[in-house]
Amino acid sequence: MKGNNKREFTRYTALIVIMISIFTAIASKLFTLQVLRAEEFKEKANNRSIREIPDAAPRGSILDKNGVPLAVNTQSYVLVYNQTDESDKTFFDTMDKVFKILDENGEIQQDDFELKIDPFRFEFRSDDPQVKRTIELRFKKDRGLDEEISRKILDDKKGEVTKEDQQKIDEELLKITPEETFKKLVKQYKIDESKYPLDKQRRFMIVKDTLKMQSFSGYKPVVVASNIKKETAFKFLQMLNELPGIDVNTQPIRTYPNGEIGSAFLGYISKISSDQDKYQEKGYDTSTDYVGAAGIESVFEDRLKGSKGGRIVKLNKQGRIIEELGRREPYPGQSIQLTIDKDVQAAAEKSLDEVMTNLRNNPYNGDVNTSNATRGAAVAIDVNTGAVIALASRPGYDPNLFAAPGRLSSELYKKYFSPDLGEFGREYIYQRGLTGYYQGKSVEDVLNVLFPLDKGIENNTTIRQDTYDIYPKPFYNYATQSVVPPGSTFKPMTAIAGLESGVITPGYTIFDNGTFDMGGGHITHFAVGGYGPVDLAKGLEVSSNPYFMTVGKLMRDAFGDDILAKYAWKFGLGAQPNSNVKPATGIEIPERFGQVFNSYSIKNIYASQYLWRTMETLKNGTDNRGSSYTAIDLYDDKGDSDKVKGIKSDLKKLIQESIKEGSKVFDKSKYRTLLQDLVASDPKYSGKSINKKEIDSMIDAIYYVTVSDANSQLRVGANMYNASIGQGISNFTPLQMANFAATIANGGTRYKLHLVDKILNADGKVIEEVKPEVIEKTGVKTETLEAVRYGMSLVNSGEDGTAAQAFKGFPLKTAGKTGSATFSNSQDAFGRTSYGLYVGFAPYENPRIAVCAIVFDGGHGGFVAPVARAMYDAYFKLENGQNTDQNANNAQNSGQNETSTNTDAQGNTENNSGNNSVNTEGQQ
């Protein structure tokens, strides 16, 4: 129709409308961003570019008594990666270039990542299976591997997760293999496994994983490589524009300038792996911080660590610092000055290594085989203050391996934290021909005796136990932790007790014909002896077993079994049970504390050992008298009800009480009631007809097979006689024995031992000083100590002295005592032999230093005496022209002669107690 003004809606019109709408939306959004919310987004942008970077505090130094550095900090170059949105886009290309530069310059990527490849495995820094289990669970949970498992197990379960639920989750989590864990993390961190080989995948994973772990505690740069060379650092600085996110910083790194020297007391630092909650509460960043893991480094962590600093910085889009907005300076930790003399320490370690090497290279020495002389310890003490001058434990380790990530190789990790005792044991058994001691047994059979599988680990088929203390342990402090029988080094203590109690005088003499009557028709014949008339001085010089056993018998007859302990406790050789006395030497680092023979302790030891025999007898259902009955199991079972657990516990307590006190407390009616209750309550006996006659047979087995035998063994005089020559249940640490020698040397004052001399602030000023502290004045008469010291001087200088060869030509007059202590009556079948020990002091007239040296499987004390001589050389700065290695050879050669002339020998009395550590073998 004409005149119609209606306009058609064309496609062009639609396009115009759409464009107007889009531009309107954009304009609206821009207005909102740039005008309405400008300040908000400006603040967010600034917050993403402004971050706080923590600055580590220099750790306090550890110094020897003369100020010689034992542990210090050195500034090192550190390659870091700063994560930003921009650097994330090129992460893999950037890191690929970084790895190439590191490799070309011989640098090592920082690698604390416990998941390893070739083969896939976890390497957690602990030799305790339970600790490893805990760390593995933490590792997997921190990376979210438990989330899918939790969903499946809980299945939308509402409410609190029960303990049983968590146990199920943990068990399923532990089933994820290292290889499966690796693949899950490859996927989680978006690593292209088709593009990169396995080793490079792991290198990317280390950085990505660190980013994830550090994200829990705020932003901080990721250390890609630490302690890099100056030349490498400058090369990276020149290439920063090509490497988004990469930067070079400096930070202090822990350094131990003397390597292994002093590792036994210094300890080391390590990344936090266990007890993370404890450290988080103290303000540590558990993803990056290092803490003391042993020794002084651990005990004084709070003083050494210092206070962290930090910088508020602005980053550009490549993650590089463009402006520093503020700074909080780190404050150095306090320094610890020790009582240790570095030169004496070095001499002790060097001499121990030389002596042990010589013993292994020349193992056949009369009655001993020293081929397993792989462990030892040495201690030196200032007799007038209790200051520890040297404390050595061998084998040792280099703490530098743990101070910087990446230094600990897989081989060293295996050696330190996860030794293959199966592999080691097979070689050990083969080399020593030990199958000859086990008729008809194969190497595998003997392996299961010496290194049995750990039954405490469920479904374990690989982890073995070192039952007979064979494998050398670098992290085990043999000076403070090993409790061993002292052998004849204890004889001066027996002499003191005999003189003070009045049963002998210095002139008291016996005729030593090489035998001793143990009572009950048992005569001990010693392989050496027959010295004829022997008084106290001669008894110490030649180490006469019959003499000191006789002293023990005289004391027992006059005062009972505890008279020896009464005096030994004054010298720190144990402590009175159930008293307020703290069983410790006082040293700052962890220690064990051995105990001398006494009636209370031996009853408890026998109660434990004979309880095990009782349980085995009942479980076998037959005894050595030929009686049979239904097998009764008193071992704990996780399936036991609370009632059954209670009955078993009551039965075991009753058996132990009977073992201690004998027939006077043996109540058949109590046993009958408990056994009947167990049979009625434990489902495993359901349907079994166990009548009164069988119950009575069980009770008779408990009494006649164990209780009666144990109690009779408790009453025999052999226990006291063995203790008098340093055998039996008496066991002490080398630290205790050194303090014992120091107390004899200084006139009877026992000091608290200490390693720390002073604590210094960051400026080197003394803020705390340790003063000598007397633990006890023994009250022993001067003439008693003079008589004992004289006899000990003859050990080192007398014509028949058992250490005379080791001290031949020594310019100072010294005193000492050798010892050889049997590990077990069956030690040859274990490839073990006697401990070689030496204690002494110097100079003789005005003592200043006391020492103890021990070599496990060292055979005889005369072989070990050169270690003491080496420490004296270093302490008194002597130049005697004869090296320690030559001394060791001389001492060992003379030791072969001593076996037939001057050495205490293994006794051949039968051990009736059933306790391997209780015997009549006493060697010099």
What does this structure look like?
This protein is of the alpha+beta class. Among the domains are: 11-49; 487-596 and 729-923, DD-peptidase/beta-lactamase superfamily (Beta-lactamase, 3-Layer(aba) Sandwich); 600-714, no CATH class. Helix content is 42%, strand content 15%. The chain has 32 helices and 28 strands. The strands form 9 sheets. Strands 2, 3, 6, 7, 12, 22 and 23 form a 7-stranded mixed beta sheet that branches. Strands 16-15-27-26-25-28 form a 6-stranded antiparallel beta sheet, sandwiched between helices. Strand 15 and strand 16 form a beta hairpin. It is globular and about 135 Å long. Residues 40-47, 880-885 and 894-923 have low confidence and may be disordered. Residues 883-924 are annotated as: Disordered. Residues 55-325 form the Penicillin-binding protein dimerisation domain. This is Penicillin-binding transpeptidase domain-containing protein.
In short:
This protein has 924 residues and is α+β, with helices and mostly antiparallel strands.
